[in-house]
Amino acid sequence: MHNTKLRPRIVDDERCRMSEKRNSRRRFLLGAAGIAAAPVVAGVAGCTSNEEPSADRTSAPTGGGGTVATTATTLAGRRRLGPLEVSSIGLGCQTMPGKLYGPVSSRDNMITIIRAAVDQGVTLFDTAEVYGPLESERIVGEALQPVRDRVVIATKFGFEVNQQTGERGGLNSRPDHIKQAVDGMLQRLRTDYIDLLYQHRVDPQVPIEDVAGTVKELITAGKVRHFGLSEPGLQTIRRAHAVQPLTAIQNQYNLLARDPEDQVLPLCEELGIGFVPWAPLAYGFTTATINPTTRFTENDFRASVPWFSRENITANMAVVQLLQDWSVRKGVTPGQLSLAWLLAQKPWIAPIPSATRTSHLLENIGTEEVTFTGDELRDFTAALNAIRVQGERVPAPVLAGTGVEARRP
To answer: Is 131 a catalytic residue?
Structure first.
């Protein structure tokens, strides 16, 4: 059994031994984030505090005398998803309606966070029709309308969603439905084009050639600029790409969910397709703010994730222990280290961590300062490879909808 006893947070004496030039901004980020390499603590996910309630991770005390900063250096890193240039770190907006992990502070605060992200250099914003449903797109649309020409908006179709009530049904990627869905998206997003349109999940009843052909028509009409797929089967990727070149694949990828490494990432490299990891912080687990005593609220999706079941989470804490050790070594937060590892895998990977607190947004952006030497990356990955993750990454019904192949025409 792995030793899951966690080491103390970085103290000021340890920070002082590091170069001032290298760590001046990191100290700011640690204070802004309030969760430097700290011991994981018991808590209730989705609970409120005197500040903004966090819907993207649980809370940990600041400790160490950290102070909250109000400014940050602009994120300068850029990456290419196929032909599309985006910021090296994007912003996932799924949690902003307050339906996935529990309530958020307010809708206005979510708009403020999105606009702060733009000010700090983030250009990639990810949403979907079913997030809310519909409400995430509305929030993103209102926030980004004044700066539309400076950002890349990605959204997703693929489910039956009532455009008035938001009531959600099953999969639906029929061509006529895709066109109807896109018209609704354009209204909610307050724009006349979508930069990157994904099929959210493969509809096994609709040939992917029909889906890609429909998106191609929307691109010709000027309503869409780029096409992507989320959690598709390998042959579906090839077949879609042959009809309308894919710009990005969006799959779950993080320190616990490494499935894409075997076949999806090599296929993306072969075809020149970018890759966007969703849940890059493993629902907040790799920020070291969830542990075996954490109790999720009833409306928190994470309560149903097998990784966090009582029988699995203790073994999975070995990943957190590894992050804690390396966070102390490098003077960064576990979340930053997690994102930096993803960025180090391929130059065409752009993760989209969520943030419902400004401090978490700034912490994520601070990942740009975190690098691995070749030896460090090899050693960290070797240690990660030695850990056997317990449990699936999503509940069984959700997992059944991933890696699906569309039927042939």
So the answer is: yes
